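Could you help me review a protein record that somebody else here produced? This is what I was given.
***
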Amino acid sequence: MRICITRSEKYAYSETFIRDQISGFSELAEVYTIHSGRYPERKEDGTLLSPKAFWFLHKIVKVFVGRNNFFSNYGMKKFLKDNQIDVVLSNYGTSGSHMVPVCKALNIPLLPIFHGHDATDKKYLVKYADKYQKLFDYASSIIVVSEEMKKGLVKNGAPLDKTKVVPCGVNTSKFKPETNVSKKKNFLAVGRFTPKKGPLYTIRAFHQVLQKFPDATLTMVGKKNGLFEDCENLVGELKMQNSVIFTGILEQDKIADLMKTSLAFVQHSITAPNGDMEGTPVSIMEAAASALPIISTFHGGIKDAVIHEKTGFLVEETHVDDMAKFIIELCENPEKAKELGLKGRAHIQENYHQQKQIEKLYNLVNNAIGNQ
């Protein structure tokens, strides 16, 4: 099998799940990857898909007719034909929608994977309404990462029988549990400082925790943009500078080390004002694989990845007091935190193990080739 996997960036620090996807498929098929833009423009080595003159003309023509024009499609068609691609797996629905004309012209099956904002952001749903309908019609399967996302896309026109739930997986060998019960009240949050991650709510909840446990700490890992300045200002206003640590971006192995020294993982995910929602956050699955109990919200795929009162605690969105209550409960009972965490790791191994998820994708891809 020759498969082409598309992604919007070659390297995005928050998209380890796509790099893991490519690595997993490389053991099962001959993989070709393209990147840079909603409609990818470059090969894995960074060279352009189209001749430079065509690439330049594409930029001009795109202003008037959009990304799918003769000059942009030329390079994509040539790449797929030259490499005898059997199937295209397109990360993000927006990218998949731009692949439809070329895949259709070459009779190559296409499977888009919706990850989050591409399935929930109101702006994208309006802007891409027509393109999404064409994608839904042509796609062999429409892959989503949570049951909640499936409901939303079906509501927006995706055929129920085509829409398959395959969450991103976790390589549990990279995230191993600490066997000893933690006596330190260290809490961890990992994610971009975006509205849907709810970092301001997490900070406000943790402020309540400090009133009872002033020795508790909250480490927040993520790129210092988006809502970061608001978070930093809030920490200053609440005089929490000695208790909240902003690390910036960290490599996966450094995050795994932090998970080993934390009591629990916290993330107050919400539906953002623009409708943007989580899929199934990889950081939450990685934390659970590290045997950390999760304190989060009844939101998106989190409701499936975390079993309330068995592998962690979930609260309604924006209910800061409830989140603080559960954090305090684990501070008071670290043995319970360990018990919840170990059950969480078992849940991830059973339902979100990376190899199992790759195999599900591979089966869908293989069926698409057979049915084309």
About this structure: The chain has two domains: 2-169+354-371, 172-351. The chain is about 45% helix and 15% strand. The two ends are 14 Å apart (CA to CA).
